User: Fold this.
Amino acid sequence: MTALRPLLFAANWKMHLDPAEAREYLQRFLAAVAPRSGRELWFFPGSVAIEASAQACRSRADIRIGIQDVHWEPKGAFTGAVSVGMARGAGASMALVGHSERRHVFGESEADTRKKVRALLDAAMGIVLCVGEKLEERERGETGAVVLRQLAAAIDGLAKEELSRLVIAYEPVWAIGTGRHATPADAADVHRVIRGHLTARGAPTNTILYGGSVNLSNIRALLAEPEINGVLVGGASLDPERWAEIVETNA
Ligand code: 13P
Assistant:
């Protein structure tokens, strides 16, 4: 791992932890985990807990807070949606885009994902772009094609310098919240496909994360793959002591 690409542990809390719970969680987590060079810790709380989370972590340069989803318009009549500017105002410096739950539960299209990427780049916010195949697509041997289609659609038209600002998260849909995870070798194969596409587009150094049922028993093997630059974790990040143990793993 080079200094330019720190090992990244990203926690996606999904629809868990209200502001008071987030504050208490972070108090316990910060007491257990000291900053370490070459490692970054990112948290994606629910929108209403972003401000409390950002305040709780303000003394820690190794920690960043992000939002789980944004709308691409700066403002307007979009009931329930949060703009990039609103997220930033609450203390988020980055966003997840195209998470499988947004795509498959809420029906987000690839065109929507692209617009979100554009809006975040224009606002100089960080982006974690999520891609991943469904089980039936994997069984049909379409994993590489699906992941590349999602990636290409989201980054269409981006300049090299813009593209190099994205973090990509490979999260196979069948591995999310199911207890089934991709083998480290399978995940690394897909990471190589993603890396190949980015390199061909002139952006060879992006951080690429793996997500999907990451936990204490598989983290070491996943991070032992040089292609895996970090992890994006849901369920196993919800308990502060358990997440502390995972981020303290030495690959
Ligand atoms: P789990 O770690 O609960 O499988 O969730 C993964 C995920 O969707 C992170 O964004």
Q: What stands out?
A: The beta strands are 7-12, 39-44, 63-67, 94-97, 126-131, 166-170, 208-211, 230-233.
